[in-house]
Amino acid sequence: MVDKGKLNIVDEEGRIIGEDTRENIHKKGLLHREVHVWFYTSDGRLIFQHRSKSKDTFPDQLDATAGGHIDLGMGWLDSAVKEVGEETGVKITQTDLRYITVIRSKTFDPVRKITNNVIRRIYAFLYKGKSENLKGDPDEVQDFEYWNIDTLLDTKADRSRIIPALLDADSLQVYRKIKGLIK
Questions:
Q1: How many whole angstroms separate alpha carbon 31 and alpha carbon 8?
Q2: Cα(35)–Cα(143) distance, integer angstroms
Q3: Under CATH, what is the fold of the domain 6-47+65-138+169-181?
Q4: What is the pLDDT of residues 67-93, one digit of tens each?
Q5: Dihedral, 162, 166, 167, 170 alpha carbons, nearest 10
């Protein structure tokens, strides 16, 4: 059984070196693992998760389609599949995912006074379903929004509703790589 209150602590190479509670890991800024899965469409759009207004971090903002911490005892791909199911209602397998890259990120949330110090693996999934088939937990997700990748990459576009860390240089490179998957 997975202990939902604890996460692995990792070194800079991503090797597990310990574990602690989620609360302590964020309070102390300890390095841990996360996964993001971006849904994209064959016509060049990314699908953002519109976070619930009740979320304690980045409420009412746009986030990766699915993502989260790597729970104790789980690997990257298992976590990616689990998060997609929980946050979108879409059932996928590991082979449905395309590995994009790994990003090392450290951000500070001034509201909660916590540090998210992560190694994050990013995957992409070609979504062929209808938008109304995406179903997130209402406590977590309001809905989903489709964004043209070119619009997202345009620095003049109004991107104010997107979580700021998803607009850094590493993230923009992720969107370019996903755009390159579209044939």
A1: 9
A2: 20
A3: Nucleoside Triphosphate Pyrophosphohydrolase (3.90.79)
A4: 999 999 899 999 999 999 999 999 999
A5: -170
62-63 and 114-126 beta bridge pairing:
unpaired
Q: Burial level of 58, CB count in 10 A (0-12/13-18/19+)?
A: middle
Tokens of 182: 């579209």
Give me Rg for the CA atoms of the chain: 16
DSSP bridge pairs for 7: 20, 71
Which runs of E-coded beta strand occur in 77-173? 98-109, 114-126, 141-148
* Angle, vertex CA 39, rays to CA 33 and CA 45, nearest 5: 135
Task: Give the model confidence (pLDDT) of 128-174 as tens digits.
Answer: 999 999 998 888 899 999 999 999 999 899 999 999 999 999 999 99
> Mean pLDDT over residues 12-17, rounded?
95
Q: Is the pTM of this model over 0.85?
A: yes
Burial class of residue 144 (count of CB atoms within 10 Å of its CB; 0-12, 13-18, 19+): buried
d(CA 135, CA 132): 8
Q: Is the pLDDT of residue 3 over 80?
A: no
| Per-residue pLDDT at 112 | 81
Do 70 and 119 touch, CB atoms closer than 8 A? no
Cα-flanking dihedrals φ and ψ of residue 73, to 5°?
80, 0
